[in-house]
Write a structure and sequence with these properties.
By secondary structure, the chain is mainly beta. Helices cover 12% and strands 31% of the residues. Strand 18 and strand 19 form a beta hairpin. The protein is globular, with a radius of gyration of 25 Å.
Length: 479
Amino acid sequence: MSGSGSTAAEKSLPWQNVRNQDLLGTEYIEIDPLNKVDLDGEKPPAQIDFEFSTTKPILFGPMTKFVVEGTFEVKTADAGAIFLPATDAEVASVLLQYNWFEMLIKSVDVFHNNQRIASSNEQRFVTPYLHTMLYRYMSPDSKRYLCPQKAHPAYCIPLGRKDWKVTSQAWKDYAAHVFVGKSINFDFFPLFQWPFYLGSNFMTDPVSRLLPLDRLGKLHIRFTFFDKQDHIFRKAANVTKSYRFKIESFQMCLEEARLSPALERQFASRPKIEFPGVTRLQLVDPVPDSSSTHKTVFQDIYLPEAVLIFCLDKQVASGSYDFSAVTDQNVFKDHRILHLDLSFDKKKFCLKEPNFGKFRTDHLGLKQLIDHHMFPMLGVKPDVSQLLLGHILDGGEATPFPHIYIPLCSNFVDKERLVPSQDDGSCISRKGDLEIAFQFQVTNSQTSAVYVTYAIYTDVANILDLKNQRFSSPYLKWI
């Protein structure tokens, strides 16, 4: 029977009631650099700035990012020669530095009014090397969304120890996507940089990605680059050509959100917003050559979730490291550490052996594997098919990334801190000094090197006070 009236079967479905919707629609926006950057010039840009203010909140996800387009070019040593697009004929003549695009960047900074927004305390130049290791072992679910293009620098990474050279298969595979005689492009999400990367596993972790930037006014983002690019190109013997990456387009993309009135009122009434993410406290120690012992101290900090240690050439810390002038094929240098002894507030974590500081002990191999898989570095989920026991034993000596990673949390309860053996647990609620004593092998400490130590937190990175429009961090003394 037909009729004009509605029946029970014709009632609207839940999604058809607009009053139940929080998000009504979105708009995509492309923003060009604020400063008039001469992207067509002979020299690479020294600084690229973006500034934006919106009348709507922003969704941080696949459409809020940076998009880079450019061409690898080559010039012969002949007089009057000009740069031309590099083709596959150059693959055997030059080698790119791993994670090369980040190696061109001195810093990425975000400002609101006169405040620089930060969630970590790190010096320049070191983080691209850490990010190289994270990209190498990153979960394929995360990597396919963060780095969808095969030309992305995240795929320019050595797979085996001492195997980053013009003849290595990993280089040939990557070069086939960038030395193509024309421009390439890739999406760029600066790792752990608020607000373009939220949480430990951006894109895959279920975290809130809505930011009421309409209530903040302007945000200013600044990329500062090295003045030259020669340091990322390692030429084969007798090659006299010059190489460069010519940036042809650098844009910021945003996704504006049109919210329901109910959700807008909800945001207006919130006093603050906590943003999930990673806080990294970093110490870079220039350990004297051939030292047998060393001690590093994080002063006045909360108990971290984990500690990460690796070794780099000392010129990295000063920003003068030149990949083109050395022969190293590994990303990190061999750390030569025999074991560690950790204490907090002058109380040792362990009084018996073996313990997590004796990481070379065979019995600890399985625990270290589980730590890397189940409580991973900086919370970044790994590709368990790539991060195997052989990559972890003896502090990663069999890989291009020798490192020591020690979680200071229980394997059984999420982020529940381990307490020093002589403490009653009260240290969890107060700050103290985290001391890490190094004992080196018979060959002693690495020469011409710095030792990088991280104290890591992966819960709250930034807190926004909406009333005062100020940002803070639960772990930093300044911001």
